[in-house]
Amino acid sequence: SPPGLFLLTSFLLHMEDGRANPTRLVCDNRLIQKYIAEAKDMEKRAGQCQTLPALSCPAVLPLVDLSFQQWKSKSNETKRREILCDLALLVGAVAGAQGQVTQECGTRQLSQLHRHANSFLLLLQTFSWETGPWEPGCSPRSMEQTHITSIFLTYRQLVQGKLRFFFRDLSVDLCK
């Protein structure tokens, strides 16, 4: 889809020596606003799909709420790792839901969500950090949900919350 291609293109345009340079993504606030709008649009379109079934095997979704005071006290690397854990769990939940949904509208929306969430996961994994690359194995706070629309809600909240604040925090150092 064009939005997924846009994210991938943004990512590829900011590669330097095999590592991502997040400067434009972080410094151009219009980009994160575009991703928030896309997340809202995906959530809305999923809600418009006719008769989405409940998931027989619940999706395990990250709890993406945040306390602003706690968030401010974390290092950028800690924030990045937390978001990566959330994204990894979310991508897994989307993949699991895709295997359970046969309705065309639902599968199309889940496929788009998978591409977007996975693109952010890949992007954040390749940001250059002094502490080294991300390694899976985290266990974020989570909840089980049987409603497919909860997956889209979680993604929107993650992009609108932690990811947006993370990019804003990075912009303090990168956008001088």
UniProtKB/TrEMBL annotation:
UniProt protein name: TPO protein
Organism name: Psophia crepitans
Pfam families: EPO_TPO
Homology family: Belongs to the EPO/TPO family.
Single GO MF descriptor: cytokine activity
UniProt xrefs under PROSITE patterns: EPO_TPO
GO cellular component: extracellular region
A biological process term (GO) from this entry: positive regulation of hematopoietic stem cell proliferation
Sorted UniProt keywords: Disulfide bond, Glycoprotein, Hormone, Secreted, Signal
Location in the cell: Secreted
Main location per the UniProt record: secreted
Secretion signal span: 1-20
Lineage, opening ranks: Eukaryota, Metazoa, Chordata, Craniata, Vertebrata
